[in-house]
Every structure is written in structure tokens, then in C-alpha cells.
Specification:
The complex is a heterodimer of chains A (about 110) and B (about 120). Chain A is mostly beta strands and about 110 residues long. Chain A is built from no helices and 11 strands. Classes of the chains: A mainly beta (about 110), B mainly beta (about 120).
Chain lengths: ~110, ~120
């Protein structure tokens, strides 16, 4: 069975502090992992996908197959990073398959 | 990039009436559309998958007769909440997978519809 777990519903940090949003998954096949972000009053948008191995807005995420984790990290949080973050997975190589979402983590960055 | 236009962005309706939500793919053809429901501060729950030219696939526990899905064309998918009740009040989001338009930006989402049933 597939499952995406985001243990923290809420996460608050001060501006300039490091931030890590946790994501663990279980999937019987080969997964492709994503982080989506939803800013206030905006639609969900893609932040990162693990196969791209890129850094977007200072965020990075490494897929750890041994720990089945895909934690999102940023060394210095900014106020504009405050948003809802969703970890999601689909079957690797699938272009028409559904996404499985975690429950989301609301990140608040205080000035 | 690919854009999915979702309308209306919000709607208030009386209990017992029906509400239609539309999602249009603006610059690509969407053969598949996912319909999600999102409760406040919670995750997105997949309700059903619509496929152009065939019947929609519903997730377990979702009432087919209550949430009617139609994928009339390659650019339009609709969700109709029939005989709406207050417990149907929620945020509904549509999403097209990347394979529908061969875009590499991942899944694209509509802006969502806030439904309030009074």
C-alpha cells in the first residue's frame, strides 16, 4: 500500500533559521517523489521533484531510499516561505497516474 | 506552462440544489483529470478520475450519484455536486497529470472551488 506521512501539521521558525519539513513514504514499487507548495489564496504548484535533483527557492530534498524519506530543507528560512507544503508520490515513470498526498505541513516563518 | 482554469472559485448554494464545477485545460488537451476534495488544513483526498470518452473512476466511499463527473471533451471536465447538503461544503480541486499534455512541470492544478451549502 502507498502512504505519505508528514508528521508535523504545523511548523514555525524564525527568519534566517534552518527549516526541515519531514516526509516519509511507503510504496511497493518505484516511487517518484514531489514537494508541492500552496501559498495563501493560490493554487498548488510544484516546488521540487526528486528526479530533477534541483534547488528551488533555496529548498532541497534528497530521496533516502533506506529511510524511505524525502525531507525538504532550507538553510535560511524567509518570511515568504510561509505556506502549506505537501509531499506527494506517484509511480516512477507514470505520466497519467494519480498523486498520493501527505496531509501537509503549514510552515510559518516569523520575522 | 500548462494551465488548468477552474470555475467558479467560490459558490454558495441552498441545500438540495446542484452545483457544477468546471475545469478547462487552456493550452493543452487533458485526457485525464483528477478531482480532489480538501478539508481545511488537511490533505487532498482523491475523489475520482475522469477520462475523456469513458466513465469516471471513483474512489472507494465516494458516491457516484452524488458527485457526477463528465469529461465532455479534451479540454473540459466537470464535477456536479447533486442535491448538495451542508456536509458537502468543502474545497474542490481538479488536477491534470503531466502525461496529458506532455509537459514536464509535473501535475497542474486548478485554483480550486470553495463550495458552501447553506
Amino acid at each position: 500500500a502507498q502512504r505519505v506521512t508528514q508528521p508535523e501539521k504545523l511548523l514555525s521558525v524564525f527568519k534566517g533559521a534552518p527549516v526541515e519539513l519531514k516526509c516519509n513514504y511507503s510504496y511497493s514499487g518505484s516511487p517518484e517523489l514531489f514537494w508541492y507548495v500552496q501559498y495563501s489564496r493560490q493554487r498548488l504548484q510544484l516546488l521540487l521533484r526528486h528526479i530533477s535533483r534541483e534547488s528551488i527557492k533555496g529548498f532541497t530534498a534528497d530521496l533516502n531510499k533506506g529511510e524511505t524519506s524525502f525531507h525538504l530543507k532550507k538553510p535560511f528560512a524567509q518570511e515568504e516561505d510561509s505556506a502549506m507544503y505537501y509531499c506527494a508520490l506517484t509511480r516512477r515513470g507514470s505520466t497519467l497516474g494519480r498523486l498520493y498526498f501527505g496531509r501537509g505541513t503549514q510552515l510559518t516563518v516569523w520575522p | 506552462g500548462a494551465v488548468v482554469s477552474q470555475h467558479p472559485s467560490w459558490v454558495i448554494c441552498k441545500s438540495g440544489t446542484s452545483v457544477k464545477i468546471e475545469c478547462r485545460s487552456l493550452d493543452f488537451q487533458a485526457t485525464t483529470m483528477f478531482w480532489y476534495r480538501q478539508f481545511p488544513k488537511q490533505s487532498l483526498m482523491l475523489m475520482a478520475t475522469s477520462n475523456e470518452g469513458s466513465k469516471a473512476t471513483y474512489e472507494q466511499g465516494v458516491e457516484k450519484d452524488k458527485f457526477l463527473i463528465n469529461h465532455a471533451s479534451l479540454t473540459l471536465s466537470t464535477l456536479t455536486v447533486t442535491s448538495a447538503h451542508p456536509e458537502d461544503s468543502s474545497f474542490y480541486i481538479c488536477s491534470a497529470p503531466p502525461g496529458t499534455g506532455n509537459f514536464l512541470d509535473g501535475y497542474t492544478f486548478g485554483s480550486g472551488t470553495r463550495l458552501t451549502v447553506v
